[in-house]
Design goal:
It contains no helices and 9 strands. By secondary structure, the chain is an all-beta fold.
Length: about 140
């Protein structure tokens, strides 16, 4: 068990009982971005460079998913022994923005299907020097 817990990527998500991804919204055209945008709006029809930080939807729909059976190369950190994991492309409900993320611990690749509803959770991704690093993941919503 780690002594402390920190986000693997600072400022990209909140923790707690109802975690949220943190994105930005263009103040001119209302296009959402994740990760946050701060330079210029990537919407081709917009010339704005002003954004507001916004919490994004906690719920989305799986567009696609794939199981990874290889250990990522350095500088990425993975458990040893390596355990395969599933990545899902999830369209956020309100923003219609697709965000990639790992599936939550215990979710089996065989139990997933495109169109499945998932919700955001925060879980451990790796430990370094007795510090647990966390990241957002997707968990199927029980129906």
């Amino acid at each position: 068990m780690s002594e402390t817990q920190v986000p693997a990527i600072e400022g990209w998500f909140t923790d707690g009982p109802e975690p949220r991804l943190l994105g930005t919204k263009c103040t001119q055209c209302s296009t959402y971005f994740f990760p946050k945008e701060s330079t210029y709006c990537r919407n081709p029809g917009c010339q704005s460079s002003e954004f507001e930080e916004v919490p994004l939807s906690r719920v989305g729909t799986i567009w696609s998913y794939a199981e990874h059976h290889y250990k990522p190369p350095a500088p990425y950190i993975a458990d040893d022994p390596f355990v395969p994991y599933t990545i899902a492309a999830v369209e956020l409900a309100e923003e219609k923005l697709v965000v990639l993320g790992q599936m939550a611990a215990g979710v089996k690749h065989a139990d997933l299907k495109a169109g499945m509803q998932v919700e955001l959770v925060v879980e451990r991704i790796y430990d370094v020097d007795n510090v647990e690093h966390t990241i957002w993941k997707w968990k199927p919503i029980a129906v």
